[in-house]
Write the C-alpha cells for this entry.
Amino acid sequence: MTALSFDETGVDVVYNGTEFRLEKELIEDAIQKSYPDITDHEVIQIVEEAPELSGEPRQIADLLEE
C-alpha cells in the first residue's frame, strides 16, 4: 500500500515501507501540469508501476484546502 501526504511544497510518500519525498517541481516536470491541478491519482502513478486506483481523482488544490 502507498500512503501520500500532500503539502504546499511536495508529497511525502510511504511505498512498501520506504519513506521518501517528491518535491513539487519534480512532480510538475513529470506530469507537465501546475502542482495544484495535478491529481492524487497522477502522483500515485509516478510511484507505483500499476496502481489499483479507487475513487474519484482529487486535485492537490482541493486536498490542501482540507
Observations:
- Residues 2-65 form one domain.
